[in-house]
Write a structure and sequence with these properties.
The complex is a heterodimer.
Chain A (H helix, E strand, L loop, with lengths): L1 E10 L2 E11 L4 E5 L6 H8 L7 E6 L2 E2 L7 H6 L1 E4 L11 H11 L5 H14 L15 H13 L5 E5 L7 H16 L3 E5 L3 H7 L2 E6 L2 E6 L1 H6 L4 H10 L1
Chain B lengths: L1 H18 L5 H35 L6 H16 L2 H12 L7 H26 L3 H9 L4 H31 L11 H12 L3 H29 L1 H4 L1
Helix pairs in contact in B: 2-5, 2-8, 3-5, 4-5, 5-7, 6-7, 7-9, 8-9
The chains are: A alpha/beta, B mainly alpha.
Chain lengths: 240, 236
């Protein structure tokens, strides 16, 4: 579904991604972990071109999206993204946050979008917040609404950029639960996170990125129980 | 006691002469009209220029119009780096050389060009004060750059822009008092004219000052109403 070929990204002289070749299949739940500054967020942000790769190609659903002729706005409709800082639109109500993009892009009519928004809100148990504004919500509520805002576009893949890192500890669970539900339903997911328990439970594959390269990847069991690369061993010994 | 009575009578007489005798209040009204017309059209022109320049400067990174952005920078630097009265005289003498020019029109153009530079910086700063994540969130949903600007960034930026813009308009109204140098008969010119007739300078100036004060206070009220309306989203 997503293929990166020799993906490179540098900011000035600073090389952040040093040639990443990776294939993510439909239905996979790929968790990306690594030390801070390793390039894992940059990797994720390159996938929907929030960061323009310096070199290499990214293919999504059979087309080269790094090609100059590719319409990135159309492609992004199919790639939902969830941010560390939620990035809800503070001047719009919760419902408007969810319906804005589908309606303005002509994917759904206003009525359809309203119905869809209420369905999604019902699913996360926040229907009563439909007319509230983002700054009336807790962090966990904001992030769950950010997730369903992305879902309202019916994406084929969801990208999560450290979705629980800005949350108070007691709110992490509700967000991870929603993500686990999505995973169960078969959503293709790429998740950058520090939540190792989530990675163990939900991931089909874990990538360890360090210094701009995928150093090791494996199934969750093997990844945690039989790490091979010394840098991964060192990383795991620090966090577990 | 008698002296105080005499003084009050004197003051009353001088203000009576400055305002009522020979229908002199008509002179102030004429001046007020000129000041208001120059201010009004200058605000409109300044806002139009400011919005255009701000859009060019903000979007220049995304499109290949760097040279346009450079022109805008020159404009802003020149206007902000030279005194208003010098600009006024230069524009009046160089561009509008014909003797039959309409001073209100010239004034509005001069003050509008001047104000545009400040307005553009106010708008640019307002747009750039919005968190980068808002643009990223909009783009990640598939909205294009302009849609994200229009639907997400600008509506939030307006709340930051409006108070500073109000200040700029207030400054502009007061600055039109130098329009006399291009022979416009604005409020201050008319007040000085009355002073030259009555031989008492202070009362007409005080009257002019009160007029400016009332105009500015009116504008302040108006802006406060706008701001309150825009702030509704924040109060929750």
């Amino acid at each position: 579904m997503i293929v990166t070929k020799n993906l490179k990204k540098s900011f000035g002289d600073h090389m952040v991604l040093n040639g990443i070749n990776e294939t993510i299949e439909k239905g996979e739940k790929v968790v990306v972990i690594g030390p801070s500054g390793s390039g894992k967020s940059t990797f994720l942000r390159c996938l929907n071109l929030l960061e323009m790769p310096t070199d290499g190609e990214i293919w999504f659903e059979g087309s080269n999206i790094t090609d100059k002729k590719a319409d990135i706005n159309l492609i992004r409709r199919k790639m939902g993204m969830v941010f560390q800082q939620f990035n809800l639109f503070p001047h719009l109500s919760v419902k408007e946050n969810i319906t804005l993009a589908p309606v303005k892009l002509g994917v759904l009519t206003k009525e359809e979008a309203d119905v869809r928004a209420m369905e999604l809100l019902k699913r996360i148990g926040l229907t009563e917040k439909a007319d509230a504004y983002p700054n009336q919500l807790s962090g966990g509520q904001k992030q769950r609404i950010a997730i369903i805002r992305a879902l309202a576009m019916n994406p084929d893949v969801m990208l999560f950029d450290e979705p629980t890192s800005a949350l108070d500890p007691e709110m992490v669970g509700e967000v991870l639960d929603l993500m686990a539900q999505l995973a169960d339903e078969g959503m293709t997911m790429v998740v950058v996170t520090h939540e190792m328990r989530f990675a163990k439970k939900v991931a089909t594959r874990i990538l360890f990125i360090d210094e701009g390269e995928i150093v090791e990847q494996n199934t969750p069991d093997k990844f945690f129980d039989q790490p091979e690369h010394p840098r991964l061993k060192e990383f795991l010994s620090k966090i577990l | 006691m008698k002296q105080i009575g005499l003084w009050i009578e004197n003051v009353y007489q001088s203000y009576y002469d400055a305002l009522i005798s020979n229908n002199r209040y008509l002179a102030y009204l004429d001046g007020l009209k000129v000041t208001l017309l120059i201010s009004f059209f200058a605000i409109i022109l300044g806002t139009v220029i400011g919005v255009v320049v701000a859009i060019i400067k903000v979007t220049a990174i995304n499109y290949k119009i760097k040279w346009l952005s450079s022109i805008c920078n020159v404009y802003i630097n020149v206007i902000r780096g030279t005194p208003l009265m010098v600009q006024l005289l230069i524009i009046y003498n160089v561009i509008f050389t014909s003797r039959n020019t309409n001073e209100i029109f010239v004034g509005a153009v001069c003050f509008g060009i001047n104000s545009g530079a400040y307005v553009s910086e106010i708008i640019r700063a307002g747009i750039e004060s919005i968190d980068r994540g808002q643009m990223e969130a909009g783009r990640s949903l598939g909205l294009n750059y302009m849609q994200t600007m229009r639907l997400i960034i600008v509506p939030q930026a307006i709340k930051n822009i409006l108070p500073a813009l109000g200040n700029e308009f207030i400054t502009l109204i007061k600055e039109t008092s130098v329009a006399g140098v291009i022979a416009a008969n604005d409020l201050l010119q008319q007040a000085q004219y009355v002073g030259s007739r009555t031989w008492v300078v202070l009362p007409p100036l005080m009257i002019a000052a009160v007029c400016y004060l009332i105009m500015v206070m009116g504008l302040t009220k108006l802006l406060a109403v706008f701001e309150r309306r825009l702030a509704r989203g924040d109060r929750h």
